[in-house]
Design a protein that fits this description.
The complex is a heterodimer of chains A (about 290) and B (about 350). By secondary structure, chain A is an all-alpha fold. Chain A has one domain: MetI-like fold. Chain A is about 70% helix and about 0% strand. Chain A has twelve helices and two strands. In chain A, strands 1-2 form a two-stranded antiparallel sheet. In chain A, helix 1 packs across helix 12, helix 2 packs across helix 12 and helix 11 packs antiparallel against helix 12. With about 350 residues, chain B is of the alpha+beta class. Chain B folds into two domains: about 230 residues, P-loop containing nucleotide triphosphate hydrolases (Rossmann fold), CATH 3.40.50; about 110 residues, OB fold (Dihydrolipoamide Acetyltransferase, E2P), CATH 2.40.50.140. In chain B, about 25% of the residues lie in helices and about 35% in strands. In chain B, the strands form four sheets. Chain B has a six-stranded mixed beta sheet, sandwiched between helices. A six-stranded antiparallel beta sheet of chain B has the order 13-12-11-14-20-21, with no helix packed on it. In chain B, helix 2 runs parallel beside helix 4 and helix 3 crosses helix 4. The longest helix of chain B has 16 residues. Chain B is elongated and about 75 Å long. The two termini of chain B are about 35 Å apart. Classes of the chains: A mainly alpha (about 290), B alpha+beta (about 350). The interface between A and B is medium-sized, with 23 and 24 residues.
Amino acid sequence: MQKTHDHKALWLVAPALLLVAFTAVIPLMTVVNYSVQDTFGNNQFFWVGAEWYREILQSDRFHAAFLRQIAFSATVLAIEIPLGLAIALSMPKKGISVSVCLVLMALPLLIPWNVVGTIWQIFARVDIGLLGYTLNGLGVDYNYTQNVGAAWATLIIMDVWHWTSLVVLLCYAGLVAIPPVYYQAARIDGASRWAVFRYIELPKMSRVLLIAVLLRFMDSFMIYTEPFVVTGGGPGNATTFLSVDLVKMAIGQFDLGPAAALSVIYFLIVILVSWAFYTIMTREDFEPSGGVR
Amino acid sequence: MLELKSITKHEREQAQVKDITLSLAPGKLHILLGPTLSGKTTLMRLMAGLDRPTSGEIVMNGQAMTGVPVRKRNVAMVYQQFVNYPSLSVFENIASPLRVRRVANREIKQKVEGAADVLGIKEFLHRRPSELSGGQQQRVALARALAKEASLVLLDEPLANLDYKLREELRTELPRIFKGNGAVIVYATSESAEAMLIGDSVTCLHEGRIASTGSARSLYDHPNSLVTAQIMSDPPLNTVRIKKKGAILEFDGDGRLHAGSHIETLADGPYEIGLRPHHLSIGAPASCGIDAVVATTEVTGSETIVHAEFMGMRWVSLLHGVHALNTGDRISLNPAPDKLFVFDETGALVVAPPGC
């Protein structure tokens, strides 16, 4: 293919570049700047090189928060993706019920994060919360401020309640985009319901599924507001995810250097994992071939 | 032999079909011809067993098939869209109906390769449909229908989404491909040319009813009704309501036509006449024909299609070669008197021009 070399293109890209520079690159660079220096106040900085990075990567505190974060994201993805897919598959394809379903599905997505946190914080309280009070009344020992399992369960159920609809909406959009003749052809072939899902619906939805997985991964990996509001990272450090830990370090302890180093590491992890998801899911042979049954 | 006995299907979202009775012989290519919404697809869905007719019976080789679900019938269907399983290789796509039937692997391999060979896609067997061109994708779909060895093959405008060259190429191959295994082949199309080229028998559909059945040639030469003549004519048939007075045919707005010798003997009175566009020639203004004004001209190179207006009536003329006519040019339309079809007021044929 012939390529045109022309500096005019630069001017067309310049506004976008400037915008990205001010919103992303420059703030990121100030963080990078902090992460390689130490300060004792007074606006005096000392070069420490990779010291903070070494410290963070070797600290048990980071390892624990990282593992918690991975566990949380993995659980949330493992529930929300299949659940969202299942709901999308069982949604009606035409009629008034479609709009009813879509509006109901979209409702949780319209609620701000901290409000979601507050709703569940109150809903799950042992003394006045509908959920907490009822569970304890039924004899279940449930208290998210004392019990690690309860705290995790609360956060996971809350996230599933809040975000499964996003997966549903994405999958549904992918599903209704499949032309009806595909289903007709499958019926004529005599393909089973499973085969229709496996060889028509799933491959046709693979792109939106990729987007759903990426969005849900990034969002859940960076979750902050909800655990902050509901559990405050507790009980103990049980729900202190990376982001919660980061804020504690930066604002609670005012350790700017290590916090900056942690930010950069955090950022790199999100990018790396997203990239890994993307490459795996867009690989040509992601869909293993087999036969229709 | 597939027989439809007064099939009716009421539909809200698709075209309806009303009182269809047809019998289709195996080893022949049967054309369903009609414009969109004439009920071709609805009828095919009924033949396939995808839908149940509201009333009427479907009989295949003497066996009643009306209530039998699709998976128990041996039907193959190819659509206008290129429908293949996106994640499966071409081989598995062609093999899919055989896998459902649990055919042995060796037999599958043999049948798939055989079908791929006939359709010329043998070198693509390991590829995915998305890596093929539109024409090749449709060949995969056709190979799947072929490998299935169905007793009824339904082709629903299979060439409509292909470009011109590929369409011509596949059109000549299609009858040869499917006729071999003695299946009933039904081919829906909206193009009369396709019906003329490949059809053994043609059924013209109009608003869900059969307008006529017969060989393409007989329907073209002797259409039983105005509707059939219109369906069989492309570009569209010129029609005009006239009053016959002796050898003169008068129509609204002071128009007159000369009756050919085949018409002169008819009783005087109102008729509707039809004239194929290639029997309407164009002359200089104020010559003996109808004075008209050019509305649009379409030049295809070997042919020129002229749309002209006379007193609010549209006339279409098909001429050989390139003719430079501009919108607004005054011309004279000269219908060939001995090429007129005459229909009565109900649309039934009264007389066809001799030897067209």
